[in-house]
Structure formats: C-alpha cells, structure tokens
Design brief:
- By secondary structure, the chain is an alpha+beta fold.
- The protein folds into three domains: 156 residues, no CATH class; 54 residues, Roll (SH3 type barrels), CATH 2.30.30.60; 134 residues, no CATH class.
- Helices cover 59% and strands 11% of the residues.
- The N and C termini lie far apart (163 Å).
- It is found in: Cell inner membrane.
- It is a multi-pass membrane protein.
C-alpha cells in the first residue's frame, strides 16, 4: 500500500465522520490537544536551550536565577493552552457552547501559568537581591511574600471570573460584603505587614542583629525576616519564631549599637568585707607609694591631706579629726589606674570604679568600663582577667572579698569552739589538782 492510497483511505474515514458530528468534534479536539502538548514540549526545549546559552555570558548571569526558579518553564507551559484557544475555531461541528467553555478553560490555564511565572519571577528577584550589599541590612522577603499573596488573590479572582464567564468587577463588588470577614481572617497578615514596613523603614531590625526578648525566650541572632515571623537563633542553637507584629507591640533589646560602637560594657561589682576597711598606717603608705600605678596618686593625696590637716591644726591631733588614707579608697584608685592602663580596655568610653550602697553582703565596688572588642569569647576573657587580678591583689591593701560561710566553715568554727572548751576544761582541772592533793595531805 503506497502513501497515496493511505491518504485516500484516511480522507474517506475523515469524511465519514461528518455523519457523526459529535465524534468528529471530539476526535478533532483530541488531535488538537495532543498537537498542542507536543508543540508545548518543543517550545519549552527551544526556550530553555536559548536561555541557557545566554546565561553563560557574564553580563547575563542573572538569567541563572530565572532558570533555577523555573520562570521560563512556566512561560513555556502557556503554549499548549494558547494553541488550544487559537485552534478551537477551526474544529468543525464543535457546538458553540462547548467551544466557548473549552476556550474559557484554556484561557484560565493560560492565566494560571502566567501567575506561576510571575511568582517565580518574584522569587528570582529575591535571590538576585539577596546577593547585594543592601540585603545584609534590609530584607525584602516580607514585601515579596505580600506581593505573591496579592498575585494569587487577584489571579484567583480572574480565573474564577473566566470559568463562570462573569466580569471580575462583579466578583470584587461581592467581596465588599465580606470585607469584615477578610479583615478577621487576614488580621495577622495585615498587622505583620504594617510591622514589617515599620521595622524596615525605621531600620529597627536587620538580619544578623543580636536581639533579646525575654517574654518569648529569644536571645540570639536574627537569621530570617519574613512577612509573618522573625526567626531568632539563640546561643544554645535553638530557633525561636517571633510574630513580626509582636516586635512592634512589645519591647525588645537590639545589641547592634554595641556591636557598631566597637566596645562592650563590663559592669560587675566586687563585694568588699566591711570589717576589713580601715586607715592606712605610715608603713603601708610608704609601701604603696612604691607601686607604679599608685605613685602619682599617693603623692597627690598625701600633699592634699597634709595641707588640710595643717589648716586645721587646732583639732588635728585627735585622730578622728584628721583626714587619712583608707585601704578601700586606695584600692579603688589602684583599680581605676589598672583599668586606664589595660591594653584591652577602651579608653575613649566611660571608665570608672565606683562605690555603691553597702549591703548585707559587704561594700560593693563596681567596675564600669568597656572592652575594645565586642566578640563574646574575647570579652569574657578580658573580663575574667580583670577580676582575677583585682581579687588577687586585694590582700595587698588589707582587704578581702566577702563570702558567705559554707558548711565547711561552720564545721571548722564549731570544731574550734569545742577544742577551746576542752582546753579550758583541762587547764581548770590542772589548776584544781594541787588543791585536792593538799586537802588529802591535811
């Protein structure tokens, strides 16, 4: 059988279908659908091949983000539905109502794939923006999510209006009666969007900021900012998701200012045993005057005190009327001089040693200064070195840190009392022994 006879037979079979219009229309539509799918595959292959070639050029490297997010694949998927729309008028015996319905259905699929292509484009733009310098300080992920929601909402309205063959304005007018319900349903979305805009526009929060929000258990670095939540990775590596709107309605602490200033505060007190506070004698003054960090201070204070005592010579002979150096005041001056000469303490920021209100635990001497680094590990090392040294040097001034007695201290004290009592008993018995012997002799 040659090709001419085969074509003749097919022509006869196709002409015979004129007697069955419904079957004829269904078969023609099936062939149109198969052809549209095949052409859609071909168009997809051609488009992706051409775009991949263009993406190899350095100036068009951003096309790689569009390819990874399947923007061109979504656009190529509109080819079959477009071919069906344009091919339906050429199908013979197709009822008008069926052709109209199938045309609307194909148009709805076209709109659907266009919506998917648009959302993929938004994702690609987000990926491109994430590689810029601005992405480190300002996140647009919340805005992209809101834009995607708007695209899906309006796309759904258009698709439904196409399928039911009604104007989209008619559906939108019906939504007016549901506005109250929509406000309730999307309350968190609207509140989160407003909060996201305020946080971003006022530069209150950035990815990478260390924030502290005890009421939600957040104490760590911000790793992601979305429309609904802000993800915080705590220092124990747990993740806390905080609703965006709570960051505006409630307070939180942002440590970015500390990190940008270049200094981190040390604010810790040493509790001095108040029973050890006293005046310095002349021997101690001479010894402490030889300490390098105290030489200038001791000379200045001794001159000041001598002048004051000389001016009040009439009452100065009484010790309570004279001004004298104290061990706690000298130690406070030494601690300040030590901080001012420490290489890791920031000298351009506040640095002081102050005495706070005495408590039942002793007299607190607070160290208030800033380190030159903001790194946690280095900060703790510097702080530990400072207090290790100050605690170790306190006995040089006749001072000691207050410490509540432990069980071992109580046992030692009680044991000492018992031993002292036993010694008194033995001494009393020793004194009483001669008198008893004399009585026995008599």
């Amino acid at each position: 059988m040659d090709s001419t006879s085969l074509l003749d037979q097919l022509s006869e079979y196709w002409s015979a279908l004129d007697q069955h219009p419904i079957l004829h229309a269904c078969l023609a539509f099936g062939l149109l659908l198969v052809g549209a799918l095949i052409l859609g595959r071909v168009a997809r292959y051609i488009v992706l091949y051409a775009v991949n070639l263009l993406a190899r050029q350095p100036a068009l490297h951003w096309l790689g983000d569009l390819i990874r997010n399947k923007v061109f694949q979504r656009l190529a998927q509109t080819t079959p539905s477009l071919l069906v729309q344009f091919g339906l008028p050429w199908i013979p015996e197709m009822p008008d109502k069926a052709a109209h319905f199938l045309g609307n259905l194909a148009l709805a699929f076209t709109v659907l794939f266009l919506i998917l292509a648009l959302t993929a484009l938004l994702n690609a733009l987000l990926d491109i923006y994430a590689r810029t310098e601005h992405a480190r300080t300002r996140s647009i992920k919340g805005y992209v999510q809101l834009a995607k929601i708007a695209v899906f909402v309006f796309g759904a309205i258009i698709i439904v209006s196409i399928i039911i063959d009604r104007s989209p304005l008619l559906l939108l007018s019906g939504l007016g009666a549901m506005s109250a319900v929509l406000l309730l349903v999307y309350k968190d979305t609207l509140m989160s969007f407003v909060a996201s805009v305020q946080l971003t526009s006022n530069d209150m929060l950035r990815v990478g900021d260390w924030i502290e929000m005890p009421q939600v258990g957040a104490d760590g670095d911000v790793v992601d900012i979305t429309l609904y939540t802000v993800k915080v990775q705590n220092f124990d590596k747990t993740i806390v998701s905080v609703p965006t709107w709570r960051l505006m309605s409630e307070s939180f602490k942002n440590w970015r200012g500390m990190q940008q200033s270049g200094g981190r505060r040390i604010k810790r007190a040493i509790y001095v045993d108040s029973s050890q506070v006293r005046f310095l004698d002349e021997k101690e003054e001479r010894r402490l005057s030889q300490v390098r960090l105290l030489t200038e201070y001791m000379a200045r204070k001794q001159t000041e005190l001598q002048e004051w005592n000389s001016a009040n010579g009439g009452v100065a002979p009484l010790a309570a009327n004279r001004r004298r150096l104290t061990n706690i005041g000298t130690f406070r001056a030494y601690a300040l001089a030590y901080l001012q000469n420490h290489p890791d303490i920031h000298q351009d920021m506040t640095c002081m040693v102050r005495q706070l209100q005495p408590t039942a635990q002793g007299i607190p001497l607070e160290i208030y200064c800033f380190t030159r680094t903001t790194g946690w590990i280095d900060y703790e090392r510097i702080q530990g070195d400072v207090f290790d040294y100050l605690l170790a040097v306190m006995p040089e001034f006749g001072l000691g840190a207050y410490q509540q007695p432990s069980g071992q201290d109580l046992r030692q004290g009680l044991q000492g009392m018992l031993e002292g009592r036993d010694a008194e008993v033995r001494s009393f018995e020793a004194l009483a022994a001669p008198s008893r012997s004399d009585e026995a002799t008599v």
